[in-house]
Amino acid sequence: GLQVSSQRMRNRRKEIACRSDIERLTPCFLSIYESLIPPDEEKEKQKQLLASLEKLVNKEWPGAQLFLYGSCANTFGVSNSDIDVCMTLDDAGTSKSDILLKLAEILESDNLQNVQALTRARVPIVKLMDPVTKISCDICINNVLALVNTKLLRDYAQIDVRLRQLAFIVKHWAKSRGVNETYHGTLSSYAYVLMCIHFLQSRRPAILPCLQGMKATYVVNIDSVDYAYFDRVEELHDFGAVNNESIGYLLWAFFDYWAYCHDYANDVISVRTAGIISKREKDWTRRIGNDRHLICIEDPFEVNHDLGRVVDKYSIKILREEFERAADVLQYDPNPSVKLFEPY
Ligand code: CTP
Ligand code: MG
Q1: Global pTM value
Q2: CA within 20 to 30 Å of 109's CA: 82, 200, 280, 285, which one?
Q3: 128 in helix, strand or coil?
């Protein structure tokens, strides 16, 4: 049933949406975007929590520092998100698990709630909830690359506001439709934002540049590897101005690309190069262990990391059907701004 009908949809000759028709959706999606932006008080509360947590951990580890990363720091966070925190410390000698267990003990005795150390996760963390602000928080240890990719996303967001508009709506769509759950084989928010950046790099004229392809003005060295890119983004504020596509049309074109245009069999999307790389070139053509490479999204810094590796042969179908549904809703539904986010 499902399989046959989705195949039929894929094969059917597609009409290209009329740009001026679809651009009529722009005001409506802009107001949805505005309503998702967190208020400034929320940022303030997060910073205060971070400062008080840092004070607490400094009693045990005087040199330790806490940094926000993920959506609370990359400007792609909606209201009431959990916050992601990275603790950096000189850990010579002590294992990450032992640090996390000690950290959990400290937090618990300071009356933070729901404290839980997940030492066996891919990224080991301690979870907690602050009873005063009600903010939930995950703390990881020395995940410096996550701080760097957080900065890269934040820097891209400053170049053209359409990235933030597109990514907010795509994330909201993915959460509403149940396709933002890596433990169920669908994609992380981080993966969706990379898909949005790649898409805007690929418009003609391009809406976003390739920061890693330009002269490096920012370099960090982690475990003797340099991570570098152009970060003077204030010099690029009118980069995409010659392209006047608006969010309504871009949103449709984004879903249309993932529904009907992306070559799932052969292509890897790469923000690092602002282009497409072949799966063959990356040796991502077959399943190795749990990595299946059914949709390939190269991490901009950990280039051997495919953010699509969580996707399996069942969830790839669900994902592609959701891309098709979204493209079709935007193109044909009389009330797309409601239908797009309808709970699944
Ligand atoms: N991250 C990563 N590699 C992954 C997944 C995540 O490095 N495979 C890091 C990134 O720095 C990312 C952060 O973890 O920004 C948080 O990831 P995620 O929870 O997917 O995204 P958020 O932006 O926090 O989204 P949400 O609003 O859904 O919490
Ligand atoms: Mg997060």
Answers
A1: 0.95
A2: 82
A3: strand
